[in-house]
């Protein structure tokens, strides 16, 4: 067969779902890297008969790893990286939410405040009424008490506000779910020739960090251990992953 140049520049979409689910795959989002790696363990028999070198060598595969670098910080991706659970909280009116008073600092509300809507802060039983800009300011996290204002440590405050709908990720709630992963890719070096990869069992690990302050666009690295699927192996297929690529002409 004559030589055919097949260089590669890849991009595409990454899809995943919980292993064993009949649900459609969800798109992970904008990802700058997808890497599969194989770790091996070597055992070598030296040549003792003179001249050095090796008389024999064994190489055993010990692990298969997958890493995704995602740039969409949606709740599902954060939950994967933090081994968390996702729950949805609806928006609504939070009436007379009671918190201990403070003469400075942040009073954290139970839900996120819709800062585009009015917020009322009073003492117990709606008296006295505190003034925005004089006694407090408002952020999504709660009420920022202005030092020297009328809010003190002596009494509770009642806060009435409109809350925004939120996705809540409770971190470190599970041992990492198993996913099926599909890479629906294109080789830009070959006029967009398709490259599709199926990973049967990918067990999520914990992200090393969740960087929340910075000057650059954030990146969330999602590590996976690729585990053996014995059913695929019994069917004569790879028990780990499979690569499909278009035959180039």
TrEMBL record:
<dbReference type="InterPro" id="IPR016893">
    <property type="entry name" value="UCP028589"/>
</dbReference>
<protein>
    <recommendedName>
        <fullName>Major tail protein</fullName>
    </recommendedName>
</protein>
């Amino acid at each position: 067969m004559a030589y055919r140049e097949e260089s590669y520049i890849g991009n595409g979409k990454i899809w995943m779902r919980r292993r064993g689910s009949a649900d459609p795959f969800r798109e992970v989002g904008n990802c700058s890297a997808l890497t599969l790696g194989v770790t091996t363990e070597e055992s070598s028999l030296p040549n003792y008969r003179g001249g050095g070198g090796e008389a024999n060598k064994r190489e055993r595969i010990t692990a298969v790893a997958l890493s995704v670098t995602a740039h969409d910080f949606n709740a599902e991706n954060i939950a994967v990286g933090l081994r968390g659970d996702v729950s949805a909280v609806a928006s609504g009116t939070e009436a007379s939410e009671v918190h201990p008073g403070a003469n400075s600092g942040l009073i954290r509300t139970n839900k996120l405040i819709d800062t585009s809507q009015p917020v009322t802060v009073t003492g117990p039983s709606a008296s006295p009424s505190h003034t925005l800009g004089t006694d407090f300011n408002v952020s999504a996290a709660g009420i920022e008490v202005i030092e020297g204002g009328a809010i003190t440590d002596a009494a509770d405050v009642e806060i009435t506000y409109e809350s925004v709908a939120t996705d809540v990720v409770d971190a470190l709630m599970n041992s990492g779910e198993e996913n099926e992963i599909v890479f629906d890719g294109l080789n830009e070096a070959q006029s967009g020739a398709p490259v599709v990869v199926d990973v049967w069992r990918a067990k999520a690990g914990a992200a090393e960090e969740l960087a929340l302050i910075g000057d650059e666009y954030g990146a969330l690295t999602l590590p996976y251990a690729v585990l053996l699927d014995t059913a695929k192996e019994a069917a004569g297929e790879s028990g780990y992953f499979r690569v499909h690529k278009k035959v180039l002409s």
